[in-house]
Amino acid sequence: MTSQGHIPKTAPRKRRRRRPRSLGGLRARLLFSFVLVAALSALGTGALTFQQARTGVLQQSQDTVVNQFRQSVDAAVLELPSAPGQEELDSLVARLAREHRTQQWNVLATYGDLRAASSDQASVDGLTSELRASVETRPVAVFQRVRTGNHSSLVVGLPVTYSGDGYTARTLSGLTLYLIVPQKSEQAYVDALVTAVERATLPALGLAALLALLLARGVLRPVRALSKATRRMADGHFDVRLRVEGTDELADLAQAFNDTAAALEESITELRRMEAGARRFAADISHELRTPLAAMTAVTDVLAEETPGLVGDTADAVHLITEETLRLARLVDDLMEISRFDAHAAELNLDDLDLAESLRRTLAIRGWPDDVRTDLPDGIRARVDPRRLDVVVANLVGNALRHGGQPVTLTLALRRAPDEPGVLIEVSDHGPGIPESALPHLFERFYKAGPARSRSESSGLGLAITAENVHLHGGHIHAANRQGGGAVFTVELPLRPHGKEDPT
Predict the structure, then answer these.
(1) I need a labelling partner for 135 at 20 to 30 A (CA). Which of 168, 186, 276, 382 fits?
(2) What does DSSP assign to residue 277?
């Protein structure tokens, strides 16, 4: 089965719904990035500052304590015998603790099996084995920081050495002294550093968020303007332009958009001018041809009456000129109808009809009742334009009879859709069907499926006019092939066209 042609549906452009802004929008990403960078910078700087300050404080405190301990021990051991007893050890640790009472020194002394401590809080058993082993085997001071719960202490181990009759710092004497000093002031200083870093981080994050909002506003303003201009252009406003400010990349983008919009507007204007000229030309030609065609049709009617009395080439010529004149007249009528659609001058003259009765009348006028099977239940009424509905059904049924195979069937049904009830008109045949390559183009103007149809009596505008009439009612039309062979055309019409009123 072949086709007649198609005009694409010229429905009004629907305004696209704006997508809701998600949490992952550009503003949110910029804000998150700025705050993240600021947080990482503040935390990194604070951590580095804290580490350096903590190390400096502890190092200074450690060096001061070790030096004081060494000096105090050097002064105190001068009065000790080379082999001190328990009494000498007790006196030594008491003296060292007393001299540094304000620093809360706890002093331990060991000599062989002898032990002495300046307070009950100091115990040799609380010292690590590594510290004790290092002090007892190496002639150097050893220190270690020990943390117990929330408190930290500095532990210093100092071996006493001698040489000959006097004490020196070279040979181990067997006497070892240990100092345990709580680092409360150092811990307080470190806690103050942590508090300062925390207090500085929050304002830095707030400032970063404020800067991010300001910068995001400056960046997003031209982006929003570009988005708005793009939507307006998509709605057909090709004269939209952006304001170009500055010399940065966004200004270059705005200028590129303006150049593109100007070129597109120029192209669209030229295309519209050419399209309007083509439509006006077709309408003018069709109108001018109607008068001479009317005269030619009258002449051919006279000649057709004389054809039975003619023989040979004369009869063939009269028959040919009659058919071609009628074909040209139909083509001019179709062009005039298409011109009215292009000029948006086509109007609906709506009437409340019994569709089954209207479809039967269409078949009866053209003498097709015996050629078409029907399934037309009574009682289905719709508000349609009788003349245009007649054109739709006549084109589809005539197309099926000419190019399809018997039987041709015309059916009518009510579409009970909850959102928009309507009617279905279906024309089917049992012919060879429609080539798959032709299905997308059936309703285009002057389209004919296959080279064999290039010189048929069809103008190639029948299905195009059919589609336009269906769309004018707010309906839809589509074509398909039946599984058992043949083609089927389905027309969907609303019971009452939306926004369509009878102009009368």
Answers:
(1) 186
(2) H
